[in-house]
Amino acid sequence: MDEKMxxxxxxxxxxxxxxxxxxxxxxxxxxxxxxxxxxxSGLGLCLGVAIGKxxxxxxxxxxxxxxxxxxxxxxxxxxxxxxxxTVFGAAVGIVSVIVYLWYxxxxxxxxxx
Length: 113
Prior knowledge:
The protein contains 4 helices and no strands. By secondary structure, the protein is an all-alpha fold.
């Protein structure tokens, strides 16, 4: 009878998901963040290489040793594109997961009312 009463009241705490659902959610979260990092690093690499190849004066003007004859704008574009793209992709993935979890928590609250 106590179980029946607690399920009818809107003030009852939410029931926790089954134990097998939590690892699946964690794998999904890690997959979204990792996938965003891979996509971000790929796009960053493409953009960095394009800047290094088609506009090498940009990297030569940004860095103080850009006038050095041994300075290679293409390799600078590869390195900066990969690192900045990976960080940006990770940030996008983390924000996406936070927004999804916030939406999911709000939706489950609305379902209980």
